Automatic annotation (TrEMBL), chain A:
Keywords: mRNA processing, mRNA splicing, Nucleus, Ribonucleoprotein, RNA-binding, Spliceosome. Residues 82-94 have a biased composition (Basic and acidic residues). Residues 2-75 form the Sm domain. One of its GO terms (cellular component) is spliceosomal complex. Residues 82-141 are annotated as: Disordered. One of its GO terms (biological process) is nuclear-transcribed mRNA catabolic process. InterPro entries: Lsm4 (IPR034101), LSm4/Sm_D1/D3 (IPR027141), LSM_dom_sf (IPR010920), Sm (IPR047575), Sm_dom_euk/arc (IPR001163). Belongs to the snRNP Sm proteins family. It comes from the Eukaryota. This is U6 snRNA-associated Sm-like protein LSm4. LSm subunits form a heteromer with a doughnut shape. SUPFAM superfamilies: Sm-like ribonucleoproteins. It is found in: Nucleus.
From TrEMBL, chain B:
This is U6 snRNA-associated Sm-like protein LSm8. Belongs to the snRNP Sm proteins family. Its main location: nucleus. It comes from the Eukaryota. Plays role in pre-mRNA splicing as component of the U4/U6-U5 tri-snRNP complex that is involved in spliceosome assembly, and as component of the precatalytic spliceosome (spliceosome B complex). The heptameric LSM2-8 complex binds specifically to the 3'-terminal U-tract of U6 snRNA. Keywords: mRNA processing, mRNA splicing, Nucleus, Ribonucleoprotein, RNA-binding, Spliceosome. Gene3D superfamilies: 2.30.30.100. It is found in: Nucleus. It holds the Pfam family LSM. GO terms for molecular function: mRNA binding. LSm subunits form a heteromer with a doughnut shape. One of its GO terms (biological process) is mRNA splicing, via spliceosome.
UniProtKB/TrEMBL annotation, chain C:
Residues 93-110 have a biased composition (Low complexity). This is U6 snRNA-associated Sm-like protein LSm2. PANTHER family: SNRNP CORE PROTEIN FAMILY MEMBER, U6 SNRNA-ASSOCIATED SM-LIKE PROTEIN LSM2. GO terms for cellular component: catalytic step 2 spliceosome; Lsm1-7-Pat1 complex; P-body; precatalytic spliceosome; U4/U6 x U5 tri-snRNP complex; U6 snRNP.
Length: 141, 96, 126
């Protein structure tokens, strides 16, 4: 389950957001984009020490300011069930990349991403370590 | 490239955050920036005066830039811990 | 990329990683990626008295950005090879900077100074 899929599944549910500055925001999630920027409505903001409160109708939170978010348990269950249902479709990829079929409108979800960079050819001299970085982890089950 | 987190799927993990908190939960997912989803998350609050307090949190999405380390919890070792007797100063925050 | 390759050559070796919260972790390097995120196996906290926070933990993933130091096993580091690779890397960087500079220069000569786009370039006589 991808973090952004979970958050998209949490739209129209109540969420708690803590920012890096310690403030927390409780409200209903209206929208979230690929940078985790959020729109909330019916918000209660709590100061870092928990001693001051502000109510606001609506607010926008920049994704990079977020420390963590809490979402209702049932949202995680719902998103998980959604994923299971979408499994076995033809274009499912092993890496678990989510597609957003059926959620019209949002446009392609996974834009640029990070390319592989210049690739691994970089250090011809350090070949050692058989396992190699990247995908070589044996899966422990 | 963060393929190293793949082996944590479905396991119990402990996240230490940049602000020094310890979160424990079931690892449900991550992305390339190491944002992580935990279900059944608990915070373990350490103190030098009393034993470890456990605070239930539910489903958490922790942003990658707030994560210092992700540990795979050995459940056998973990269930053998006597949390009430563990006293320690809270971890210091990460200072860049 | 040089240090990524360097750390890849240390996979399987024991290292100590000191974090920016003063915690030090001793373990076997299992993998490393381009951000120098590292995974260690059989980890022990070097000062377990002070940090009893990870008593039930053996395998851990460390975010590259929170690493302060990595203590390397001295006899596993080929210093000459590292120096060589660093020189080659530096030379390469210099060469590509040169190419970029000359490209930018020729672009400027062709394109005039008008940053604003538009096709008012002076066509060089040829």
């Amino acid at each position: 389950m991808l973090p952004l899929s979970l958050l998209r599944g949490a739209i129209s549910h109540p969420v708690l957001v803590e920012l890096k500055n310690g403030e927390t925001y409780n409200g209903q999630l209206i929208n979230v984009d690929n940078w985790m920027n959020l729109n909330l409505k019916e918000v209660v903001c709590t100061s870092k020490d928990g001693d001051k409160f502000w109510r606001m109708g609506e607010c926008y939170i920049r994704g990079s300011a977020i420390k963590y978010m809490r979402v209702p348990d049932e949202v995680a269950e719902m998103v998980k069930a959604d994923m299971a249902r979408n499994k076995g479709r033809p274009d499912k990829r092993p890496g678990g990349f989510q597609n957003n079929r059926g959620r019209g409108g949002a446009g392609p979800f996974r834009g640029g991403g990070r390319g592989g960079g210049p690739g691994r050819g970089g250090g011809k001299s350090f070949r050692g370590g058989g396992a190699g970085g990247g995908g070589g982890n044996p899966r422990e089950e | 490239m963060t393929s190293t987190l793949e082996t944590f799927f479905g396991k119990k993990v402990q996240i230490i955050t940049n602000d020094g908190r310890t979160l424990i939960g079931m690892f449900q997912g991550y992305d390339q920036t190491i944002n992580i989803i935990l279900t059944d998350a608990n915070e373990r609050v350490y103190s030098s005066f009393q034993g470890v307090q456990t605070v239930p949190l539910g489903v958490y999405m922790v942003r990658g830039d707030n994560i210092a380390v992700v540990c795979e919890v050995n459940e056998e070792l973990d269930s053998g811990l006597d949390l009430d007797s563990i006293k320690a100063e809270p971890l210091r925050p990460i200072v860049h | 990329m040089l240090f990524y390759s360097f750390f890849k050559s240390l996979i399987g070796k024991e290292i100590v990683v000191e974090l920016k919260n003063d915690m030090s972790l001793l373990g076997t390097l299992d993998s490393v990626d381009q951000y120098l995120n590292m995974k260690l196996l059989n980890v022990e906290v070097t000062d377990a008295e002070k940090f009893p926070h990870m008593l039930a933990v053996r395998n851990i993933f460390i975010r590259g950005s929170v690493i302060r130091y990595v203590h390397l096993p001295a006899d596993e580091v080929d210093v000459e090879l590292l120096q060589d690779a660093s020189r080659r890397d530096a030379a390469q960087a210099k060469a590509s900077a040169k190419v970029q500079a000359s490209q930018a220069k020729s672009q400027q000569q062709k394109g005039g100074h008008g940053g604003g786009g538009g096709e008012r370039a002076v066509v060089p006589a040829s």
